[in-house]
Each structure stands twice: as structure tokens, then as C-alpha cells.
Specification:
One of its GO terms (molecular function) is ATP hydrolysis activity. Keywords: ATP-binding, Nucleotide-binding, Transport. This is ABC transporter domain-containing protein. This protein is of the alpha/beta class. It has one domain: Rossmann fold, CATH 3.40.50.300. It has nine helices and twelve strands. The strands form three sheets. Strands 6-7-8-3-9-10 form a six-stranded mixed beta sheet, with helices on both faces. 38% of the residues are buried.
Length: 253
């Protein structure tokens, strides 16, 4: 076990956004969180990266209660690429990625050659090596997304949480990012909208509907035509791709 939610609930004004969700990330797996708009994916992820404190249940990082750990300890183990942006940053790309090193440093400890090397390799991993001195504010949405991924990599954690990481990315960078996550072999939980991409890259999927887990398992177990009709209200034909994954063809409404 690495990161796990057990019976996690969160409600606003009596309405459950997350309703007794239990899931467990196995070491080294790429777990995809799917579900329609408003099903609670981001809310659940927020309880797992310490933004939304669960009102019920517990989140564990290994054996510890994640919410009882000092923030710095949690950040040494768990990195996030979130949907929420802290406004626009007036920093260079390299400065943003260097922020990923903060949990590993004492207050005001200067950056080292090793930190700079990690920043360079993290930027290279996401295809942004030539952009280190650019102002973050001037980047496109997809470039920003890749820089935030580089910051998460620079954090050097063994657990990654990604909220719609392929948002803003063109098809090439969607494939690169999913391939990178797979190649790194970190324990990763990602909220994903593209069910074909999820089926192609994820080891397992968890599907949410109205804050509840309605299915969990291998992509072909979770993504059945019947369930997609029930949960998304969409008809789909499911076949096999040449590479052996399931492929979904959605039918017009
Ligand atoms: N702070 C809040 N107060 C009230 N309702 C909220 C709050 N945060 C989220 N919600 C509601 O909770 C539900 C779940 O939202 P959430 O963003 O977690 O879903 P999601 O599955 O990530 O959706 P999407 O796919 O559209 O990003 C939505 O109906 C949303 O409007």
C-alpha cells in the first residue's frame, strides 16, 4: 500500500461531493480516476493531496494518516499537478520547477548544483529544456501544464497525483505525458476524461458517479458498454485496438 483512501467523505451544505470512497494505490501502478463532469474526481484528489480535509474516513500514506503528517514530510513523498492555479506566476520556468525542490531543503538553504541538474533533467523529460529562462506567464496552456509536470518530477517523490494532466495538451504531448508517467513507474493517480487514453495507459481504473465509486478494476472490466451508458448516458461500441487494448467508439447522441 502507498496512498489509500478509506471511507472518505466530504459534503457541502448537506450534499455529498465524496461519499465513502475507498481506494488504494498499489506501489508502481498507474491508476486512472474516471467519471462524468461533477462526479467528484477533483474533490477526491483534493482530499488526497491535503487541500480538502475529509469529514469522514481516513487518507493513509503508507501507515500514517496523511492529514496528521507535517506538510513537508507529505511533500517529500507526494507531488501534485492540480487543476487550481495559484494565479499567474511572475517567475521563470526554471524558478517554478526549482520550487519542486523546496520540501528537500531547510529554510533559506541555497540551491545546489544537484538541484539545478534535477531542474534541467525534469524540464528535458517534458520537452521544455529550451524554455528554462522564459517567463512562466508568457507560456501557452499546454506549455504551462508541462512545466507544472516538471515541477512535480523535480520534487522526486514516489507518488504522483495528477488532475486532468492532459488538459490543454495536443495529441502528441498527451501521448508523451502518458508515456512518461508509465515509463517513470511511479505510483500515480490521475483524473482523466479521455477513456481511450485511460484504457491504453492505466493499469487499473476507478469510476466515480455522484461522489461514489461505481466500478474499480482493469480497464476492460470498468469500461463496459452497459456501465458507460448508465453513468455517462452515451452509447459506445467497444473493440480491441491493434496493440491489444480496448478501444471505444462513441455513438452520436
Ligand atoms: N466548494 C464547493 N462547494 C460546493 N460545491 C462544490 C464545491 N466544490 C465542488 N463542488 C461540486 O461538487 C461536485 C463535484 O465536483 P468536482 O470538481 O470534484 O467534480 P469532477 O468530477 O472533478 O468534475 P469535472 O470533470 O467537471 O472536472 C460538482 O457538482 C461541483 O459543483
Amino acid at each position: 500500500m502507498t496512498l489509500a483512501a478509506q471511507d472518505v467523505s466530504y459534503a457541502v451544505e448537506g450534499r455529498a461531493l465524496i461519499d465513502r470512497v475507498t481506494l488504494e494505490l498499489r506501489p508502481g501502478e498507474f491508476l486512472g480516476l474516471v467519471g462524468p463532469n461533477g462526479s467528484g474526481k477533483s474533490s477526491l484528489l483534493r482530499t488526497l493531496y491535503r487541500v480538502l480535509k475529509p469529514q469522514g474516513g481516513v487518507v493513509r500514506l503508507d501507515r500514517s494518516d496523511l492529514w496528521a503528517l507535517p506538510a513537508r514530510h507529505a511533500a517529500q513523498r507526494l507531488a501534485v499537478v492540480a487543476q487550481e492555479r495559484m494565479g499567474e506566476f511572475d517567475f521563470t520556468v526554471a524558478e517554478i520547477v526549482m520550487m519542486g525542490r523546496t520540501p528537500h531543503k531547510r529554510d533559506f538553504e541555497p540551491e545546489t548544483d544537484e538541484d539545478r541538474r534535477i531542474v534541467r533533467t525534469s524540464l528535458a523529460e517534458v520537452g521544455m529544456a529550451g524554455m528554462a529562462e522564459r517567463a512562466f506567464m508568457t507560456l501557452s496552456g499546454g506549455e504551462k501544464q508541462r512545466v507544472l509536470m516538471a515541477r512535480a518530477l523535480a520534487q522526486g517523490t514516489d507518488v504522483l497525483i495528477l488532475d486532468e494532466p492532459t488538459n490543454h495538451l495536443d495529441i502528441r504531448y498527451q501521448l508523451e505525458l502518458m508515456g512518461l508517467v508509465k515509463r517513470l513507474g511511479l505510483t500515480t493517480l490521475a483524473a482523466l476524461h479521455d477513456l481511450n487514453l485511460a484504457a491504453q495507459y492505466c493499469d487499473r481504473l476507478v469510476m466515480l458517479e455522484a461522489g461514489k465509486v461505481v466500478a474499480a478494476g482493469a480497464p476492460q472490466e470498468v469500461l463496459t458498454a452497459e456501465r458507460i451508458r448508465e453513468v455517462y448516458g452515451v452509447d459506445v461500441r467497444i473493440g480491441r485496438t491493434a496493440s491489444g487494448h480496448i478501444g471505444l467508439e462513441f455513438l452520436p447522441l
